Amino acid sequence: MPTTQADPIDDRETRRPDMEVMLRSLPAPHQEIIVATYFGHRTAHQAAEHLGLSPAVAKARLYEAMRSLSGMVDTCWPGPAEPSVAGNTARRIWRMNIPKRRTAAR
Fold first, then answer.
1. What structural domains does the chain harbor?
2. Ranges for the RNA polymerase sigma factor 70 region 4 type domain (predicted)?
C-alpha cells in the first residue's frame, strides 16, 4: 500500500508566519517605518520625509525593525538557511505576503 507524503508546498503554507501578528508585536516606531516603507511603497528617504524623521533615523529604525522581524520569522519558521544580513528572511516573507506593486503601462 503506497504511503502518502505531505506536500512540502502545502506544509510551508501551513507554517507561514502571520506577518500581521509579528508586525503588531513590534514597538510603535518600528511598525510606523514598516508600514510607511513596505505598505506605503516608499523608499527609506521618502518614509523619513513622510514621518518627519531624518533619513538616518528612518534607516536605523527600518534596519532594527527588519532585524526583529527576521528573528521572529526564524523562530517561527526554522530552516536550513545560513545566517544572513539582518532582515533578509523577513524580506523574503514580506514578498510572499504583500501584493506586488502595480506599475503604469508605458
1. 13-97 (1.10.10.10)
2. 21-69
